[in-house]
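Worked Example 4.2. Consider the chain below.
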Amino acid sequence: MGPCEFNFSGALTDVGTFLATAQVLENTGVMAYDGAIRYVDAGDALQAGAQIATVEARHAAYLNLINRDSPFPCAFDMGKKPSEIFAAAKPFIVSCPPEVTALMARLP
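Applying the procedure from the previous section yields the following structure tokens:
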């Protein structure tokens, strides 16, 4: 199974578009890590995921702030299902192997 192919060129047209896209991607990253943590039960992998999620949250907070949104929009971040994260990335996906699409659809 090969990787998906992405195109972010539409996000690079101007500074405002870049910052708005970065904000969406960072906030989506936080939701992805929060949602994926349920699938990790190994100590080292669990710790690494938690550490990455906190860094993603810092990035998201900063981008929210510079885009004039609340850096802490709610008390708790809500995790998203893999299918929801995949759908959020859809505008940037050029192609994706059918196996990846099927996996995203079937994960709970």
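The CA atoms of residues 37 and 49 lie 7 Å apart. Residues 43-66 form the longest helix (24 residues). Compare this with Example 4.1 before moving on.
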